[in-house]
Amino acid sequence: MLFKLGRFAILTHLINAKVIWAKYSEQGKIVSSIRLKHDMQALPIFINIKNRHCVVIGGGDIALRKVTMLLKASGAITLISPTLCHALQQLVDDEKIQYLKADFEASQLAGACLIIAATDDKTVNEAVSINAKRLNIPVNVVDAPALCTFTMGSIIERSPVVIAISSEGKAPVLARYIRAKIETMLPASYGRIATIAGEFRDQVKAKFTTTQARRIFGEDVLQGPLVERILSGQEQAARTFLQTVLNSTDSKANKGEVFLVGGGPGAPDLLTFRALRLMQQCDVCVYDKLVSPEVLALVRRDAELIYVGKSRDQHTLPQEEINALLARLALEGKRVLRLKGGDPFIFGRGGEEIETLMQQGVPFQVVPGITAANGVSSYAGIPLTHRDYAQACLFITGHLKDGPIDLDWQAMTRPNQTVVIYMGLVGLAAIFEQLIAKGVSADMPAAVVQQGTTQKQRVVTGTLSNLAEKVALAEMKPPSLTIIGKVVPLREKLNWFHSS
Ligand SMILES: C[S@@+](CC[C@H](N)C(=O)[O-])C[C@H]1O[C@@H](n2cnc3c(N)ncnc32)[C@H](O)[C@@H]1O
After folding, report:
1. Does ligand 1 have an atom closer than 6 angstroms to the CB of 372?
2. What is the pLDDT of residue 6?
3. Is there a contact between 263 and 369 (Cβ–Cβ < 8 Å)?
4. What angle do CA 418, 421, 422 make, to 5 degrees?
5. Which residues on adjacent β-strands are paired with residue 449?
6. At what angle are helices 61-72 and 86-93 packed, to 10 degrees?
7. Which residues in the chain come in under a pLDDT of 70?
8. SS3 (DSSP) at 139
C-alpha cells in the first residue's frame, strides 16, 4: 500500500522506515503518519526511586559510581559486599547508605525496586541477574548488557533537567562524545530555568487554558530575556519579569535588553560560550572597530549591524551617542548586542554604557571577554608573571584624553613587574624615553605585538632604548599592545604560535 505513493514511498524506502500509523485522504493519499526508522532495543524511561529500596552488589569504585548516581536520585540504598572501598566506607559511616557485609544471596533482593550488580566476579553478576529477572525487578549489570534489563546511559545533569544518552550498548564512547558535545551547549545553570518555570506553572496553567496557548507562551518566554536573566544569575529579576508578563494582558511585554559582550582579542574561538550564545540571539549588533571580522561573522545572520567604531583620533559616534543609542534600541523592544573588542570593562568604556542603561531602567548583562593583555601575551609566548621576574602586572593606557602623555610613572617604574600598555603605539618613543629618565634601565626588554591572537599577529622585541625605532621600521599598526619587563625574553623559549 505504501509503495504506490510516489515520492513518499521512495522516501520511506530510503530511510528504511516502518509506518505504524497513517491517516488517508479520500483520494487514498497519506495526510499524516507516524513512522519508526528502527525498533528501539530499549524504552527510555525515568524511574522515581526517591526513598525506595535499591540494592547494589559490589564494594569497589564502580559500585561507588552507581551508588553516587542512586543517591542523587534519593534512593534508599542497601550495599552488599564482603569488603568496601574507602569512599563507600565513608558513606556507610555517614549513614548515607545501609551496608550488609556479606556475600551475595538471592534472598537479599526481596523488596527492591531496582538492582545493580557491580562486582568483578562474573558468576556473582550472573547470579544477581538471574535472580532479579526471576523476581521481575529491573537489574543492571555493569559492562554486561546481555545480563541487564535496564541501562542508565550517559547522563547530563542540569537538575531538574536530566538528559540520558544511550547507544544501546553498541558505542559507549560515541555516547560519551555526544554527551560532551551537549555539555558544552547547555550552560551549567540551565536547570534553574526549569526550577523557576516550575514555580510559575500553576499561574501559567490558569492564564493559558489550552495546551497550544501554553506552548506558544512558553516558547515566547523561553526565547526572551527570562532565560538570559536566569543564566546570568539574576534570578529575582527573572521572577519579576515572568510575573509582569503573566500579569500583563500583552504576553509580548517589552523584551528589550542589552548584552554588553566582550569579543576577545580577535581569534573567534577565544569567545566565551555565553558570548557566542548571545551573539546568536540578538536583533541588532552595535560593534566597535576592534571586533575582528571573524568574530563579527558569528553574529546572527539576520541581525542588523551598526558600526560605531572608533580610532585614536576619530570617533565615528561620540560615546554619549553610543550610550543613548543602546538605550533607545532596547526600549524599542530589541535585544541589543553591544559587541566590544577584548573585555568591556578594560579600557572599553563599558562602565559608562551600562550607567546610562541603569539610569533608563534597561535590563542588561555584561559578558567578560579575554582582554588583549591576556590573549596577546599568551599568543606571543610572553607570560605576564613569572616567579623569577615579575610578581605583579600593571595594565595601563598610553592614550590620554587630551594628547600629552602624563602617566603614573611611579607605578610604571616599580621593579619586578610587567607593564602592559594599551593604545600606546603613537607615544611609544616618548613613553620609553620617560621610563629611562625615571630610572628604568635602557636595556629593559620590551615587545610590541600587533593584531595578537590572529593569523596576522606580528611581534617586534627589543629594549627600551631601541624598540621604538624597530617598531617604526616595521611599520607596526594598531591594534598593538606593548609589554615591558624581564618576562619578554622568555618568548625566545616559549613562542608557540606561528607568527612572522
Ligand atoms: C580601546 S582599547 C580596548 C581594549 C579592550 N577592551 C580589551 O580588553 O582588550 C584598544 C587597545 O587594545 C589593544 N588591543 C586590543 N586587541 C588587540 C590585539 N588583538 N592585538 C594587540 N593589541 C590589541 C591595543 O593596544 C588597542 O589599541
Report:
1. yes
2. 38
3. yes
4. 140
5. 459, 481
6. 40
7. 1-21, 23, 30-38, 219, 223-224, 249-255, 310-315, 400-404, 499-500
8. strand
Give the 3-state secondary structure of residue 350: helix
Please identify, by atom number, the ligand 1 atom nearest to the C-alpha of residue 398.
Answer: 25
User: Cβ distance 425 to 445 under 8 Å?
Assistant: no
| Order of all β-strands in the sheet with 335-340 | 304-307, 284-287, 335-340, 257-262, 364-367
Residue 261 Cβ < 6 Å to ligand 1: no
Q: Using a 6 Å cutoff on CB, does residue 453 contact ligand 1?
A: yes
Element (H, E) at 304: strand 304-307
Helical axes 235-247 vs 190-199, angle rounded to 10°: 40
How far apart, in whole angstroms, are the C-alpha atoms of residue 495 and residue 381? 4
Enter the C-alpha cell of residue 150. Answer: 535496564
Long-range contacts of 204-211 (CB under 8 A, 24+ apart): 204/246, 207/246
Residue-level pLDDT at 11: 38
Helix axes 350-359, 319-331, angle to 10 degrees: 40
CB 124 within 8 A of CB 80: no
**What pLDDT does 62 receive?**
93
Task: Give me the DSSP letters along 45-94.
Answer: -----TT-EEEEE--SHHHHHHHHHHHHTT-EEEEE-SS--HHHHHHHHT
- Cα diameter, the chain: 95
User: In this structure, are strands 445-450 and 458-463 parallel, antiparallel, or unpaired?
Assistant: antiparallel
Q: Which residues are catalytic?
A: 288, 310
457 Cα nearest atom in ligand 1: 20
Could you give the CA distance from residue 342 to residue 232 in angstroms, rounded to a whole number? 19
Place of cell 527570562: 226
Point out the ligand 1 atom lying closest to the alpha carbon of residue 453: 19
If we measure between CA atoms, which residue out of 344, 393, 373, 384 comes closest to residue 453? 373
**Residue 168 has what pLDDT?**
78
Whole-number Å distance, alpha carbon 434 to ligand 1 midpoint, is: 23
- pTM exceeds 0.90, yes or no: no
Residue 230 CB neighbours (<10 A):
25
Q: Is the CB of 480 under 6 A from ligand 1?
A: yes
